[in-house]
Amino acid sequence: xxxxxxxxxxxxxxxxxxxxxxxxxxxxxxxxxxxxxxxxxxxxxxxxxxxxxxxxxxxxxxxxxxxxxxxxxxxxxxxxxxxxxxxxxxxxxxxxxxxxxxxxxxxxxxxxxxxxxxxxxxxxxxxxxxxxxxxxxxxxxxxxxxxxxxxxxxxxxxxxxxxxxxxxxxxxxxxxxxxxxxxxxxxxxxxxxxxxxxxxxxxxxxxxxxxxxxxxxxxxxxxxxxxxxxxxxxxxxxxxxxxxxxxxxxxxxxxxxxxxxxxxxxxxxxxxxxxxxxxxxxxxxxxxxxxxxxxxxxxxxxxxxxxxxxxxxxxxxxxxxxxxxxxxxxxxxxxxxxxxxxxxxxxxxxxxxxxxxxxxxxxxxxxxxxxxxxxxxxxxxxxxxxxxxxxxxxxxxxxxxxxxxxxxxxxxxxxxxxxxxxxxxxxxxxxxxxxxxxxxxxxxxxxxxxxxxxxxxxxxxxxxxxxxxxxxxxxxxxxxxxxxxxxxxxxxxxxxxxxxxxxxxxxxxxxxxxxxxxxxxxxxxxxxxxxxxxxxxxxxxxxxxxxxxxxxxxxxxxxxxxxxxxxxxxxxxxxxxxxxxxxxxxxxxxxxxxxxxxxxxxxxxxxxxxxxxxxxxxxxxxxxxxxxxxxxx
Length: 633
Known about the structure:
With 633 residues, the protein is mainly alpha-helical. 58% of the residues lie in helices and 5% in strands. The chain has helices at 2-17, 44-47, 58-70, 73-84, 88-97, 102-118, 124-128, 130-141, 148-161, 168-180, 186-199, 205-216, 224-233, 239-252, 258-270, 276-289, 295-308, 313-323, 332-344, 350-362, 369-381, 389-400, 409-421, 427-434, 436-439, 448-467, 493-506, 582-593, 603-606, 612-632; strands spanning 512-517, 523-530, 536-537, 561-568, 596-602. Strands 1, 2, 3, 4 and 5 form a 5-stranded mixed β-sheet that branches. Strand 4 (561-568), helix 28 (582-593) and strand 5 (596-602) form a beta-alpha-beta unit. The N and C termini lie far apart (102 Å).
């Protein structure tokens, strides 16, 4: 109590001894013919101390101003007039009717900005108005006395109105904000950071300083809205701040509503931050607490999970189930975005995909060629054949065959390749991409994109030779069929274990080949030739039409068969399924059509066997069953 009384006495004596402000007198800032009214603020004790936000009084000053301003009837009148104004002219007239202080002038500028944004007004006329210049002068002359929150809003408003950043008044406001950063609340810093990140980007000096303060004061962070906003608008600028925000989001995950979860997952997706603990927590609370989700939430969630390659089957099932009834009313863009995300995640929901296939048939006129291509590519990735495939593919061929020349080469290649996966590639498609003028443009191109295109053309060429008996050409030239060199692929556990176990099946290394690169563009893990009694034969002397350069020329003996061992790793299957993805289904078909007896070695069977003798016995048993099945058919 005694300390408080001493402080009050000090303020009174200081006010009595100090001279009036050295800033521009109020009388000079009032239009001619007007009488200067008494200020609501006791400026005398502070105006001489024109250093921005002195540490001795900055924290409590805005509170004191608010209390004293609230007692001033004139300030109440001005405040109500600012709130009630519906046009820039009404606001600008206030500077003619009243003697304004810096806070009131700042509030008017802020309201001008709001009206300009709300009513989409031209700001040039506002900036050139003499009354606006007067408001800026009043604010600039007393900038140190503007309240913190008003100052932050003033800076935002000047940016929104488009004031030149090189103007002295603008730089003065920026500098004042910079000096006061330590005194701003965390919420004010967050609001300022959000605005500057959108308006100015990473190059803003002020934004970088604000972010440094946020990083130091992150423990003050509270409230889901602030966390969500900072993650979405500012997190990409500062990885250190984003780390803190992820920790805080994990702590607040239970309080997030569906829209918060949507924004957080999108922020993670756009920044490629695969924070698994946070994603798991969000998934858990999404399933446990939120039964109904809006369409935009469903769409953004599945997109974000797909981009982050985050697999959560319960969430996928919920999203697919909730999306199903929305399909008939969705736009083509929403449909293609949805199905591409599910395809990326390798998640096949039969009811949803059937509904999308029916949507494509019912809305053919609304679907562009690009939309239709996206649907076909997604179906091919998951090897999905619609139950009404005849009607669906009839529509596809009618819409696409006349549009092939308009498609970009890579999209056209992907389309024809996908139709080959689905066994729907007709001669016009094959002829278009296997024509010499089409593939001539990628010869000699060693880029990754060109190599992928070349690999798919080899697969299409294989489909034309092995699965299209009526197709007569053209085909790819032999020089394009040379297998691409493997790009430093790591040897997997299944691959090494399979090779060790095959040694017991082959008996001798001369009886088999490993890592065979075929002219069909597919890789065979091991190849062998067995006679009619399932005994391995040396294959060096036999002709090998599946190789670009065959070592031998002899035909296979009567009753002998070529055997291909194909391993299937975990990524080769659909999510939580034993169904191969479309690419590998086509690979198996082509190897089989090339005259091989295929022995499948899936990871979920082979790796469960711990002993080598068990694995060798497993391979022999699989080989015998494949031979028996072949003979029976």
